[in-house]
Amino acid sequence: MTTAETPAFVRLRVEMVLEITDPAALTGTALESIAADFTASGASADESAEERTHAEETVREDGAEALASLIDPFDLIGQVPGVQLAQASWSSETIDYDPDSEDWAAGEDEDEDGIYYEVEENATDGEEDGGNAER
Q: Which residues contact 102 (CB under 8 A, 6 or more apart)?
């Protein structure tokens, strides 16, 4: 692809499944982050207290929300030269996950611009099953 063909905007989709191994540590870190954010925000005391209370209740009730409150797309690309984040959205949800299930595969919902490589378990010397790659 030449420079003239390079798109000015790129949508990067990342899907991860994370296991919460220490809910108390996750919630504690999320609460510390909320406290720091509201201290630094400079919002009025009444407005800040109400919003902070709501945010704290949310992360205490749901580990997925605690995790989402700690993820910042700006941090993910902040050190990447030559790019600027134009827009971001993200969400998290608690899911039923069985890594051995045939019903779940990473990249399953990819559109034709996504890349998903499935590697044969018996491949040797770096040989991959290129027949299962989607672009």
A: none
| CA-wise closest residue to 70 among 85, 58, 87 | 58
Rg (CA), the chain: 20
Residue 54 lies inside a defined structural domain of this protein:
yes
The answer, as to whether pTM is greater than 0.70, is no
- Nearest alpha carbon to residue 57 among 69, 40, 45: 69
- Give the residue numbers spanning the domain of 114: 105-135
Distance of alpha carbon 70 from alpha carbon 28, whole angstroms: 11
The type of residue at 75 is D
pLDDT single digits (tens) 40-72: 877 666 667 889 999 999 999 999 999 999 998
Please name the residues in contact with 124: beta carbons below 8 A apart, sequence gap of 6 or more: none
For residue 21, what is the DSSP state? S
Instruction: Report d(CA 134, CA 117) in Å as an integer.
Output: 7
